[in-house]
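During the reporting period, our protein records have gained a structure token line. A sample record is set out beneath this paragraph:
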Amino acid sequence: MEFDLSKPQKLLRETARATLSRHFPLSRVREWMAIGATNEDSLWSTIADQGWVGLHLDNSIGGLGLGLVELTVVAEEMGRACMPGPYLATTWAATLLAQIDSPKSTELLPSITAGEHKATVALMDQDGDWDLKNIAMQLTPSEPGWKLTGRKTLVLDADSAHTLLCVVRQSSKLAIVFVPRKATGVSCEKKRSLDATRSLYDVAFNEVTIAESDVLAVGEQAHSAIEQSIRVATLAACAEMLGAMQWIHETTIEYAQTRKQFDRSIGSYQAVQHQCADIHLMTESARAATYYAAWALTSNAPDACKAIAIAKAYCSEVGREVGHRGVQVHGGIGFTWEHDMHLFLKRIKVCEFLFGDATWQREQIARLILK
């Protein structure tokens, strides 16, 4: 693998950083947080105009035809900007649809990649976890199709989505079901999230009518599509955590150089230097793990699944530690609402539990090794 980004990838990073700093400064992010408008149309249209929705998908379905390394580059910059909105949710849903050979997915994908349609995935049962073996919500037969009753939790940006891709069971087999957000019997309840820039919902399905054509995939095809989409979404979450760590790293170094105590910058004290060195080490190690996982998944490397789990486990743990050390170096100001540090610490904390925390990922690594 290459140990540095190519020239086009570096240009993409520069473009993403310039676009996000111009359109989504932290002052604007705070305004959206204050009014609860983290999914407003102006935000989404800017993202769609850049072609970032479906960045990694094939040109034939409206994507840019780039790879997962490029997706990681853009997602990292979004984490560095603490950008709100349904990008992670829609990227997950678009990746899932791209794995399914059905008329409905062929119809939906171009409008999703164009930014005209938003989608999200309803995966986790209310009493379950991220393991697909624990999906228990069932489709029940009902002429001429099916009925869906149950509840999903931790659904990203469900209220702003036009489409919910619900992961359920048809008898004992996994199935992916297309459900319009405004279908009769569907209701969303916003969960209180630590990160006000990321919306999480419980979604209830009460006798929702499902047509036969809305069952997009069943059995092995559904299982394979879900697993692949989760890997891509997990990679994007790692990249967001990496971007947040990078912001904390840059801000903490700058603060240590400018903040003075006893007529000396605090960065001249060895204890502070050790904290900054540890932040740098953990951030760069997280970068290596994340970009290796992106390369491995793109290249279909034999250890790709393990690389994704390692990246998520490592980013989840050191992201939290980088945030804590950044707050410590900043001292009193780092604990205040006025300083932006808490925005990134909260983004890291929520991403830590999406798609499985460090402990859960280590269990997956152990299963892969034993298998």
